[in-house]
Amino acid sequence: MAEEEAETLTLTVEGGADERRLDQWLARQLPELTRSRIQALARQGALTDAEGRPVGKLSAQPRPGAIYLLTLPPAEPTELEPEPIALRILYEDGDLLALDKPAGLVVHPACGHSHGTLVNALLWHCPDLRGIGGERRPGIVHRLDRDTSGVMVVAKSDRAFQGLARAFAEHDLEKDYVAVTHGAPPPEGTLETQIGRSPANRQKMAVLRVGGRRAVTHWRVEAALPGGLCRVACRIETGRTHQIRVHLASLGTPIVGDALYGRPALDRRLPHPPGRQLLHARRLALRHPVTGAPLCFEAPPPPDFAPYL
User: Strand pairing of 149-155 and 294-298?
Assistant: First the structure.
C-alpha cells in the first residue's frame, strides 16, 4: 500500500461565527474530528494562521475573515480488526448483505477513526470479507456520511462486488432519502449541477460553475412542519460526496442539524435540537448483483426523527 501523506486543510471564518471559542468553531467545521483531537493537534503545532504562525489560544473567539490551516498527520497503518459491534441486518445471503446504518457510525477507517467503524463490525460478522474489493474497505461499494443513517448494501463475494460496483456506476438502482430542512424548497423539482471541492473551504463540497462532477437530485416536499421546518423526500441519480446536503443548502433550505452546511444557531433554538444532520436513507432498490432478482430494502427513520414525522 502506498504511504499516506499529511493533509493540510484551509478553513476561513465566513461572516459572523456563532461559537465563542475557536476550538468549538473548528469542531463544527470538521465534524469528523473531536474537539479534544483538535486541541491535541494545536498543542503539536499543527494549527497555524495564514502566515504560518502556530495558533495556541483556542479559547479566543474566531474572527470573521480569519484563515486557519490545520495539518492532519498521515494515518498510521493499522491492521483491520474485527469488532463485536451490533448491526441491524435487513437481508443477507452468501453474496450480499443489506443493513440499516445508525447515525454516528463511520463506514471505513480513516484519519481519527481507526477503530469502531462499520468495516470493523462487518469483519466480525463476516470473517471471510477480507480482500473483497479492497484491503482497507472490504465489501464497501458505497457509503453514507458518519451522521447520515439508513440503508446500505455490502458485497460478501468478488462477483457481488463487481455487480454492485457496476450498478452504482451506471446508476442502475433507486436511492431514496428523507430530510428535515430549515425552510421549504418549491413543492418538487430537480437539481442538476456540478459538485466539487469548495475553493473557499476544502472541507466543504459546493455547487461549481466550472469543474466538479455531475450531480442530480430530485426532491418532493412531504410536509410543512412547525417552526418553519419542512420534511423533504429526495431521490438521487448520482452519489457525490455530501450531494443532498449541498443541493438542499444551495436552495436556501439546509438540513436541520447539519454542522457543515446548515444553520447551527437556528438548530440550537429548536425544541428538540438534533445531534446530527437529519438525513436518512430510507429505501434502496436494485437487482441482486449475482442472481439479478429485484430487491428493495427499507428502513424507517430512527427515533431522532420522531419530532418531525
Answer: unpaired
290: its cell numbers:
449475482
Task: Give residue for cell 473483497.
Answer: 132
Residue listed under C-alpha cell 461572516: 15
Question: In Å, how far from its chain's centre is CA 273?
Answer: 19
Decide: 100 and 50 in contact? Cβ < 8 Å.
no
Based on the residue annotation, tell me whether 49 is a catalytic residue of this protein: no
- SS3 category, 208: strand
Instruction: Yes or no: say if 230 and 223 are a contact pair by the CB < 8 Å rule.
Output: yes
Q: Using alpha carbons only, how large is the chain's radius of gyration in Å?
A: 20
* Cα separation, 212 vs 210, whole angstroms: 7
Ranges in the chain, pLDDT < 50: 1-4
Query: Catalytic pick from 23, 145, 176, 267?
Result: 145
- For residue 135, what pLDDT is reported? 55
